[in-house]
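Letters spell out the chain; backbone shape is given numerically. Both lines appear below:
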Amino acid sequence: MKALQTGTSRLGRSLALAALLGASGAAVADAERLEADLRAMFGESGSLTLGDVSSAMLRSRVTAEDVRFEAQEGERLHIDRYIVSGDYDNPDEVTLEGVRIEDSLTELTLMTAERIVLGEPSRAVFPLHEGLAEDVRLGSLAIDDIAIELASELAEEMFIDTPLQTRRGRMTIDSVRGEDITRHAIGMFELTGVAGSTEDVDGRGSGSFTLASMRFEGLRGIDIEGEERLDTLLLRNLVVDSREFAGSVAQLDLDGAFEDGKGGLRLESLELDLARMIELAPADERTQLRMASNVLTGGTGELRMDAALLGSWQDMGEHSVLTSDSRIDIHDALRLAFDANLPVRLPEGMTPAEAFADADWLERATLLGGDLHLMLSDQGLFPRLVTLGAATQGVTEAQYIEQARTQAQGFGMMFGPEVQAVLVALVDLLEGSAEELDLRLTLPAQSKLSTYADDPLGLPGKLGVKVETR
């Protein structure tokens, strides 16, 4: 019995040693593969040096220390640690710590990131010189503490077709998060804690900006120009102070995923410092801009606006019902409300969700009656229009209003009583005898949009028009 126990113990130790040797061999192989893949990552576009490349056998992890690459163009990349966790052919995670991109000629740091984590990547190393391959896939993305120098070719490529493309300055980002990222689509992408400043170059002025967060979901078709589609976008607390733009937005919420039957755009607390921007405009344009600003803001130079442009649809079987509930509120100027209730027959094979994604869908749809309702409420704009118009024409305000009423009646004789009713109602707003205009349009039982587009002057006669003022 003792001999059997001794033999069993020896067999166990032998199996454990064999397993350990096998794991050691696999670990060494993974370390060699990582070194080879990192060398192939950049192709022959520069020189690469590596520090220690080693494997942690028990934790299925391989690490390359002190990765340094110097491109032929002069840029230098330094990664403190490049870590592959899990099965090398199917990693759980790839982590880059201490990432820095520098200009080797000027020693200027172009970009830094404290930590980059690629969750469930399709490869342990992505060859950059091959471009974005078809099989690129990330289950998740996390980047922390990013700093970017804007005066670099790297920044120009990152911010192409944006105001930051050719600016000098610095931008920082607290964190970047992403999910389900491929060459064709991004499931989710979020930036938080964005701040930046730009310098005065060639008289363009310095500036600054902050953004609390920006998140979008369901971005598709990004590899084909013109085919991009976005489900949702949420932006919070953007503040910009520059020569070209001075203002802020508390929230912008875009819902483009109409599969659930609704979508649209919400804009909360847009504030523009028109007076500040006008002072920086060309001298020969300032007078006209100030007049427009005074009319819109009552002389404060601060434009404040909220908006909600919302739509929804219901599938009723043989037809769909499209509705709109939209509001635009320019504080101390005017409020505009627009509602629509339109039963439509869509082209065969087209769903309502597809129709909303196609800007030309309405031209191919059959309108089955319905109604449109527009309400315009004066909040100070119309009296200011009278003052400006009278001053511009060198007449009294009473004379200006009388001229406007005469013109409204004249247009009515040319284009019909429906047009006259609308124009006279607008004159009532100018005069102050009314504060709201209520316009209701009823569509015929069956029609095409092209019917109205081809004969816009005959449009009022084809619709039921009801105008009221209060």
